[in-house]
Design goal:
two-stranded antiparallel ribbon, 10 helices
């Protein structure tokens, strides 16, 4: 679609207040879902991140890689097992998770961002003890699924101060050197809170929180964290949305200015959320 120079200039002017708002501020983006597996959407995400960094916004990218892990497990003849939505991670599966997330997916994202003119540094939670973790303390045994004890922000801040986009794979490390599989939403929320980020953006394959889960037109654009218990009790927040929204609530309560769940299936959804008045998805404040 051709647009006039007048419209182009108006788009830039409209974006200016948001560029100023986020200038030199940290934005944490949790990257996952269809936006990671669809090449067109992946290209859009990389372009968005490069644009944000060029106008002075400090972007931290935290990624998952569930489909790639499933594919590799299948190739080596290991069955994927999930308990309450979490991947059961025995020692053999942990080796695959570490190999795929830290080796394959992380480095592919670094290369993709570099090809778009960005400067990226690949990290995982084991680097500089970035994500200190321990085995989840629950009655159910999830294997080497970890919960976060501490985020060491220095490697992230050093990368940002040197002009790099830190791209973080969510494999944590225990005091004894044991790696742990960490939920990417949980890791992104904790990283954002420890960095006192201006915004935490969770990319998903849904439009946001819906009043009626089968009707996209019932999108709830904004939720105060104090409303979340009522929304759970009424069934509006249910199923797989519960852990994602719990991450948003935790991030806000720990000091993140705003968190938002956006539809990563929409090209340039990151720019729409951060640099326009309409935004996209559901924000938690």
């Amino acid at each position: 679609m051709d647009i006039s120079n007048k419209i182009r200039s108006q788009i830039l002017i409209d974006a200016l207040p948001y560029i100023q708002k986020y200038h030199d501020k940290i934005v944490v983006i949790k990257y996952g879902g269809n936006a990671m597996t669809n090449n067109e959407l992946k290209e859009a995400v990389m372009s968005d991140i490069v644009l944000l960094t060029e106008v002075g916004i400090k972007v931290v990218l935290v990624h998952g890689g569930g489909p790639e892990i499933n594919s590799m497990l299948k190739r080596v003849g290991i069955e994927s097992r999930f308990i309450n939505g979490l991947r059961y991670t025995d020692a053999e599966t942990m080796d695959i998770v570490k190999m795929v997330l830290c080796g394959k997916v992380n480095k592919e994202l670094v290369s993709a961002l570099t090809l778009h003119g960005g400067r990226a540094l690949g990290l995982c939670g084991c680097d500089g003890q970035l994500i200190l973790a321990q085995k989840m303390d629950t009655e159910t045994d999830y294997g080497y699924v970890g919960e976060i004890r501490k985020i060491t922000t220095k490697p992230i801040i050093d990368a940002l101060n040197n002009g790099y986009v830190p791209i973080i794979a969510t494999v944590g490390i225990g005091d004894d050197g044991q790696p742990y599989n960490i939920n990417a939403d949980t890791a992104a929320a904790r990283i954002a809170s420890c960095l006192r980020a201006e915004n935490l953006v969770l990319m998903t394959d849904i439009v946001g929180l819906l009043e009626d889960k089968d009707d996209p037109s019932t999108l709830i654009p904004q939720v105060n964290v104090s409303e979340v218990p009522h929304l759970k009790a009424s069934g509006i927040i249910s199923g797989g949305m519960i852990p994602k929204i719990d991450c948003c609530v935790e991030a806000v309560r720990r000091g993140v200015k705003k968190t938002v769940i956006i539809d990563g299936r929409v090209p340039h959804s990151i720019l729409i959320e951060l640099l326009t008045s309409e935004g996209i998805g559901t924000q938690f404040v």
